[in-house]
Write a structure and sequence with these properties.
Layout: H1 10-13, E1 22-25, H2 35-44, E2 49-52, H3 63-68, E3 72-77, H4 84-91, E4 96-99, H5 102-113, E5 118-121, H6 128-131, E6 135-138, E7 144-147, E8 153-156, E9 159-165, E10 169-180, E11 185-186, H7 195-201, E12 202-213, E13 232-235
Parallel strand pairs: 1-2, 1-10, 2-3, 3-4, 10-12, 12-13
Antiparallel strand pairs: 5-9, 6-7, 8-9, 10-11
Helix pairs in contact: 5-7
């Protein structure tokens, strides 16, 4: 089988993502999100998706586009505060949500990708996460239709820990700054965030890359994720509007006043 993993376009890369598929999606806020692949999924229209990602984008960008179109049935996330549609769907019982502490979510993805079925962590011990009963999905009347289960606990070094399961998914979608034809990837600064972890967790991982290079052009020390974890590579153009790098919350500082006659 050829080691060239380059796929013609994003539509081909996600053509087998069917209804009800589970997805691990890289990115943090809007930083490092696989926007071109998300748009391809939107155009494909497969619903009932079960998505694992740090957050769900914003109302009009990123995973928020899939959510607004009614294509996501379940989210496993650590932060969801930037999306009003997310809150509406969750509170009205249209969306199932599993909230996970951010470090725990990262480790669950890494564990799944490393073949580790479960691990113990002190995060969440002594809270409702351990006790169970969190509303994963509401009923139409506001009741709890699906509740989180209680967690198995164990004491290590005199401290209680919770058992957390590793996460694996049918597919993973990630974005890299540079990738070669064998699937080796390099991420740009903070855009590395959840991307390598999501890529490890997917049984079929699709990477959109801003720059495609030939095998050997990436120095070994520059490879942040080896190609063994990547099955498909999609080159994207800088002028593609779907690849736009938006700023989630633009914060600027007012320039200080300049006083004449001083100095």
């Amino acid at each position: 089988m050829s080691r060239d993993k380059v796929v013609a376009d994003a539509a081909d890369a996600v053509a087998d993502v069917g209804r009800g598929a589970s997805l691990a999606v890289g990115g943090f806020g809007l930083c490092g999100i696989p926007g071109v692949l998300i748009h391809a999924l939107l155009e494909r229209g497969a619903g009932g998706l079960r998505v694992v990602s740090n957050n769900c984008g914003v109302d009009d960008w990123g995973l928020g586009l899939l959510l607004r179109a009614g294509l996501i049935a379940r989210m496993t996330s650590s932060y969801v505060g930037e999306n009003k549609e997310f809150a509406r769907q969750y509170l009205q019982g249209e969306l199932e949500v599993e909230l996970v502490p951010q470090g725990t979510l990262a480790e669950r993805l890494r564990a799944g990708g490393s073949g580790i079925p479960a691990f113990y962590t002190p995060a969440g011990a002594g809270t409702v996460i351990a006790e169970g009963g969190l509303a994963w999905r509401h009923g139409a009347d506001g009741s709890v239709a699906v509740a989180s289960p209680p967690r198995e606990t164990r004491v290590f070094g005199g401290r209680e820990h919770l058992l957390e399961e590793g996460i694996t998914t049918d597919f993973a979608l990630v974005r890299a700054a540079v990738g070669d034809r064998h699937g080796n990837l390099r991420f740009d600064s903070s855009a590395r965030n959840f991307n390598p972890l999501a890529a490890m967790a997917g049984r079929i991982t699709v990477a959109e890359v801003e720059e495609l290079v030939e095998p050997g052009e990436l120095a070994p020390d520059d490879v942040h994720l080896p190609g063994i974890f990547v099955q498909r590579v999609v080159p994207i153009g800088a002028d593609d509007p779907r690849a736009e790098k938006r700023i989630e919350r633009l914060t600027v500082r007012t320039a200080p006043a300049v006083h004449e006659g001083t100095g």
